[in-house]
Amino acid sequence: MASIKLSPALKALIAAPHAHGGPVAARSAADIQSTLHRLANSARENGVGKKAWLTLGSAALVTLNSPETLCALYRFVTKDASGDSRAETAAEYAAVMREAGLKTISFSGIPRAINNLGALRECLEPEVASLLSSQPTRQPTPTNLPDILSSANSLWNSIYAPHSTKLLHKLSQSHPDLPVHILSSHYGPLLADPFGPPPSGHAKVGRILTSVVAIACLRAQGGVGPQVTSHVFGLRKAGEKGSGAELEEKVEGGEWLTTEDGAKWVIEQVDALVQLVQGPTFARAKL
């Protein structure tokens, strides 16, 4: 096959400044540290554990496409880890961040997840990266496919009941394969975790934190208010018996996050991260 080359003119067009083809640069270190300190302190005051606010921050920053800020979040969350277990602790946080980043695919797309997860990997210390598993957990097989599809329906119903069936019908009117793809490609194999306790070198972002990921992504990207509302309901419902959350490892602060105050807090923290990355433009837009 002949080699295909792009002309300088086409390359220049792709890289044109108005296209915003690159990631969003990080703000000053002082601004980042101030915002992350406020996030961590507010979480502590409300009994929200590090895994929960790290999930929130990771999902929002991947959506905002600021890999430098995502790496700053990793350095911030691991700065107090020390001693013989330092690498293990840092790897646990990195695993949470990459799992949250993976789940952003369902809400803010594959390209941002690819670029930001790649940047996160590059900013990990070698001894930390070596502790993360390289084994996939979501490969569909003829054996596990029925469980994947069952998990898709269970998660969908947990979030959207009592309107879940009606919503699937409405989606199918837009395109008959839309609900098929949503359930079979996202809710089953990605958003519904394929394991109980996470395998070594992996993290689990379970029922409650998956709703946090959804809200963080959708709020950060803007323009999708109806979907934010749907997943706020989903977060609230995660606190109800039968949601599936009661079968998982307890999330520190998870019970509070499923309250109205908790959902409000999630949105406010995402807004703070959006303002950090996007600057005064976002602040003026909210006035």
Automatic annotation (TrEMBL):
SUPFAM superfamilies: AhpD-like. This is Mitochondrial protein. The lineage of its organism: Eukaryota, Fungi, Dikarya, Basidiomycota, Pucciniomycotina.
